[in-house]
Design goal:
Radius of gyration: 27 Å
Number of strands: 0
Length: 235
């Protein structure tokens, strides 16, 4: 706010008025002005309610506060957009799992505090750090987060952790509202599709479908283990 062109005028109004300098605002009145939550069209009633002098200082202060709030919101929006662009470069299964765990927490808490703190990067640096992780590191991160979710929300319906990680790798995550494991036909179909996509013996001239942080052979091994794990649970 100090960078605003009218900030010097605001200071001048305060300096010129001994009444303003001697004012003591209640916590509620201060919060309404400082956050700000007070709309400019309600300023007259606000001054009357809290018995404040009708100085142009308040209108200017409120104007600068709203402008500052709008600037900050715009900056946050731009940063979030840039972070989202980085996230879209993550492997498909990783992006799907990030969104899945957010939706899962949302069933119990719409604000998703654990998801926002641990999984969705709040800075470009963190987004790039996460983008450098290999799937094994992602699995550890997701497994830890599932445990935190289970402890934080006793009544949340979370699939068994090992099965959930396997579903992520096979790109067949269950419905977060009614988690049901995939059927045998879906498992087989997903395994065949992904095996063809990342089998180490495929043609070296074939163009890759996504950027990967590990060799295709390593991903193929993870997919095979996931398929075997879920297949055993079906028997």
């Amino acid at each position: 706010m100090r960078r605003a062109p009218d900030f010097a005028r605001l200071q001048a109004l305060l300096t010129a008025s001994s009444k303003l300098r001697g004012l003591s605002l209640s916590p509620i009145a201060y919060s309404l002005l400082n956050q700000p939550r007070l709309k400019p069209q309600h300023l007259r009633n606000f001054l009357s309610t809290y018995k404040l002098p009708p100085s142009p200082f308040f209108a200017l202060f409120l104007k600068l506060k709203w402008e500052d709030r709008d600037r900050r919101a715009e900056a946050r929006g731009k940063k979030t957009a840039r972070i989202s662009v980085i996230i879209k470069t993550y492997p498909r299964d990783i992006v799907a799992m990030i969104l899945y765990l957010g939706t899962l927490e949302k069933t119990r808490n719409p604000s998703m505090p654990l998801w926002k703190k641990a999984l969705f990067p709040n800075s470009l640096k963190r987004a790039r750090e996460l983008g450098a992780l290999k799937r094994a590191a992602w699995i550890r991160l997701f497994s830890k987060h599932v445990d935190i979710l289970a402890k934080g929300y006793r009544r949340i319906d979370i699939p068994e952790r090992g099965a959930l990680m396997a579903c992520m790798l096979l790109e067949c995550l269950p419905d977060p509202a009614k988690p049901r494991p995939p059927g045998k036909a879906e498992l087989k179909s997903q395994f065949r599709r992904l095996s063809m996509e990342c089998h180490p013996d495929r043609s070296q001239t074939e163009e890759k479908t996504e950027a990967r942080d590990e060799a295709e052979g390593e991903r193929f091994i993870l997919i095979k283990k996931a398929y075997d794990y879920l297949s055993r649970k079906k028997t």
